Amino acid sequence: MSESIKSTIQLNNGIKIPVIGLGTYLTDDSDIEKSVRSAIEQGYRHIDTASYYKNEKKIGDTIKELIKEGKVKREELFITTKVGTWQHGYENALKAFQESLEKLQLDYLDCYLIHYPGTYSEIPKGESMSSLRSQTWKALEKLYDDGKVRSIGVSNYAISHLHELLSNCRIKPVMNQVEFHPYLFQEELLNYCKSNGIVLEAYGSLSGGNEILTEPVVLEISKQLSKSPAQVLLKWAIQNGLVVIPKSIKPERVYENSNLDFTISNEDIQKLNHLNKNKRFYWDPSNVN
């Protein structure tokens, strides 16, 4: 099993997503152009952002420039953004999408996700978080029907949220983007998504500062394969069936993160799986009703 920057997998609606993408969370505005430009020039075709990241305009500017320079064509790109936690609700989500589309300066999106099953805003009187999620999803279904987005999905959804959605949706989500690394090996969620035809996409693959990158088991496998700890962690996720979206502003790291043309043995995959501590570095959706 060897992945390159051109490797893709098919989503449940038939469209293809590159297995390796560029994450842009917490990338400073001053660094976004360098990061996106470096990634696309090195062959990345999948860029992940969100309204919450406050960098859609800068990403849009950079993509527009690269298209103008002939470095890439719009139809070659897979661009994902997300409805913010404060943008739940039918009308709010439609408005949020339009704002993101205008900032990104695109005619359509490749994927639009609900960023989180909860909200940090006040829930309107007579509503519940469950009903707000349902309304938000209905807005995404309309955007999909109208051809404004090629696929729709969710992020940070636990099994309970997915079950609720699958019980009521007209269009099934193509993806669930969640924190996923050896310290948070969400096996039950992974199996649930696989059995329902939903791709699991990993964020935070290299999170926790140096904690995971200096984990002895990771270092041992890294040395054995003559690959960096980051490459081992990303390849581990891909061999477990996930899409990965590592972020970096350093061109050499951007390249390293996409150079995954090797295979980790099943034995070593199991060693990494068994590092699970249910340890999160980001949001915990398990208490969201």
Automatic annotation (TrEMBL):
The lineage of its organism: Eukaryota, Amoebozoa, Evosea, Eumycetozoa, Dictyostelia. Belongs to the aldo/keto reductase family. InterPro entries: AKR, Aldo/ket_reductase_CS, NAD(P)_OxRdtase_dom_sf, NADP_OxRdtase_dom. The gene is alrE. Substrate binds at residue 115. Pfam families: Aldo_ket_red (PF00248). It comes from Dictyostelium discoideum (Social amoeba). Keywords: NADP, Oxidoreductase. The active site is at 53 (proton donor). The record marks 82 as: Lowers pKa of active site Tyr. Residues 21-276 form the NADP-dependent oxidoreductase domain. GO terms for molecular function: oxidoreductase activity, acting on the CH-OH group of donors, NAD or NADP as acceptor. SUPFAM superfamilies: NAD(P)-linked oxidoreductase (SSF51430). It comes from the Eukaryota. This is Aldo-keto reductase.
